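so im writing up the methods section and need the UDP-N-acetylglucosamine 1-carboxyvinyltransferase record in one place, dumping it here so i stop losing it
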Amino acid sequence: MTDDVLTVHGGTPLRGQIRVRGAKNLVSKAMVAALLGESPSRLYDVPRIRDVEVVSGLLELHGVKVSAGADDGELVMDPTNVEEASTDEINVHAGSSRIPILFCGPLLHRVGRAFIPDLGGCHIGPRPIDFHIQALREFGAIVDKAPEGMHLSAPNGLHGTKLELPYPSVGATEQVLLTAVRADGVTELRNAAIEPEIIDLICVLQKMGAIITVHTDRVIEIQGVPRLHGYQHKPIPDRIEAASWAAAALATKGEIEVLGARQADMMTFLNVFRSIGGEFEITDARVARPGVTGVEGGIKFWHPGHELQAVALETDVHPGFMTDWQQPLVVALTQARGLSIMHETVYEQRLGYTQALNQMGATIQVYRDCLGGTPCRFGRRNFKHSAVIAGPSKLHAADLEIPDLRAGFSHLIAALAAEGTSRVYGVDLINRGYEDFEGKLGALGALVERL
Ligand code: EPU
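--- predicted struct ---
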């Protein structure tokens, strides 16, 4: 067990307001995009999270000057003097995040070579990078895998190509975008991911001078341009963090207003939240009222005060129910009457955390079959990827070890909802993706303390 421990005295409803800033899964990619420009970029509303530190470190190693701007959360990235970095220096970041894989295209364009360390990120299945490598090779990159990482070069430059992803992977779509924008000629990507964070990355790239068309049916066309310049961008809000706090409100029978959350990015989540019996109000209308300034809206989420209802759900690529919304919501589902079903179709091993919930009194059974929805890629491959949650269950305190970012947050919610005092080990992992979560817990009246 690790020594970063949070003691959680559970059973108190969380109440109050917190704010979410730019989405982790856009901010880190927009930072990589800055490398493609030949003048400085400015990103606003950047959360203070570990993933931002890792990408800042990698950018600096490659000669990008990263500094804080005048506004809180403003990040300035100056890529005027981009240079190669040594393998040893880059390897310091090995295992810390999955973002380094996205440096391939930008580095090949800017310095002609790239070295990518071993990747990190959450342990939620094998998380292969075969789509990335295949795409890079089709652009003309030479990819050499070595024990210390991956070496890439493009002696004949990078050229536009026609690609079709076997699955609409978020990362592989970003890889293609970040490579195609400065490749020679036109790229057509079929079966692309179209998550709001991807569309926002396309907005960033368009601001830089890229020409990208999003067609219907997951087809994206990119017309390569010889050079790009810097951008100024306010990222979309973090819809995963917003949903995590919404689930915390429901599980603890509380009321949380998530300032900055945006309805358009969360429609699927809001429908499910309502089906369970959760109540919400979109408060961003306040911002638009004439004559009202300095008031920020978002979404207020609360428990209805009566019993919650079970639902059958499956995770999917956008516009489906996000895989990252799954873990926090399952904690709330332990409080719903009846049998809920959660069919995880994006990652094959993302239900392991339910064991800890069972240890706290939940009744969750995991199955290898595709339950409750359409058969998915994992049905015949022996992965336990469907869960049946029987509720309501009275949760009691336990000692918990955080396994990964989203499961970690769900452990925290479970400890906050449970009667008694839990000890949550490894909480620092949560800082990878949730800005100042301890400060926010304090603001919501949670009774937590560091040991
Ligand atoms: N896949 C492959 N081969 C590849 C790439 C992906 O088989 O080369 C598979 C994966 O194994 C997975 C599926 O495709 O089964 C989807 O993976 P995807 O590439 O879409 O995920 P990712 O880009 O690695 C991002 C987010 C994840 C989020 C997923 C799905 C970032 C940094 N990460 O991961 O977020 O769950 O998209 O929306 O953007 C998190 O924030 O905690 C997190 C894990």
